[in-house]
Amino acid sequence: MHSISYYQEKIANHFTQIVSNKEPKNLYEPIEYILSLGGKRMRPVLTLMASEVFNVDCEKAIPAATAVEVFHNFSLIHDDIMDDAPLRRGNQTVHEKWDLNTGILSGDAMLILAYQFFENYEPKIFQALAKLFSKTALEVCEGQQYDVDFETRDDVTIPEYLKMIEYKTAVLVGAAMKMGAIVAETSDENADLIYDFGLNLGIAFQLQDDYLDAFGNPETFGKQVGGDIIENKKTYLYLKAIEFSKPEEKQQLLHLFSIQPTDNKDKIESVKGIFNASGASEATKKAIQDFTFKAFETLEKMDIEAEKKAILKAFGENLMGRNV
């Protein structure tokens, strides 16, 4: 097995030639652009890593890893359109740099391209990858719809929120790992277990993102701290604060999440104060820990060498120890 940076470099090198010099330029240049913005490339790294966990050279998993990352970036283009977001990873979003129609069409092309990468595999592996991919892609769309629905609802429950982040974020992490297992042609049990590992790690990762959005270090987080509070997003922190708060705190929180002041500094500080006083902050940290441990429990059942289990556990611990 190799280092994370080795896998990241493999993916980065491969991405430089995916759609280069293809016509028409106005369709393919936005695809090149979004893929060039980089990011951590966590999902394709997991696909490559999973193939080597099951003793197959990661080279064989590159087409599947590419499909995962192309799909992920397709979803980002369309999410940015839905959110009317001006920036992605500190750069202009595709629909801002070009226009709305280009963003929609280039995104559509990316979804089709993602499927094409599976054509590098023999029929049995192709079928298993395409089946998992279709299921996952639909779940991501369902998660996005739940997220949109929650914006106008005041009765969102914790189980509903966890289902939303599972579908919107975690299923793709689980699928990325299972694709590596499918390419390696390991047992169905191993493939399902590494999916569960990725799924639970993905939920923990998103809950941590919620937490860091409120309490992260502005210099290292990479996004505006308090962004979810400004947008009145009903995150796990918010839902736990509603559940735990005293009546007067609850009323204050409901009021704060119904307004859009010109200066958000006081709003952010007031909301964070309620998150801390109510115990919502601690409850969120515990949930992050619980889902991380749940991921680690699946490793014990996996039929792989102890050394490989240790590598996967270290990756999970590193991911959960982040402050960005």
Main features:
324 residues; mainly alpha; Farnesyl Diphosphate Synthase; 2 domains; globular; Polyprenyl_synt_CS; metal-binding; Isoprenoid_synthase_dom_sf
What does this structure look like?
Pfam families: polyprenyl_synt. Keywords: Magnesium, Metal-binding, Transferase. This is Polyprenyl synthetase family protein. InterPro entries: Isoprenoid_synthase_dom_sf, Polyprenyl_synt, Polyprenyl_synt_CS. The protein has 324 residues and is mainly α. The protein folds into 2 domains: 151 residues, Orthogonal Bundle (Farnesyl Diphosphate Synthase); 138 residues, Farnesyl Diphosphate Synthase, CATH 1.10.600. The chain has 16 helices and 2 strands. It has a two-stranded antiparallel sheet with strand order 1-2. A hairpin with a 2-residue loop joins strand 1 and strand 2. Helix 15 runs antiparallel to helix 16. The radius of gyration is 20 Å and the shape is globular.
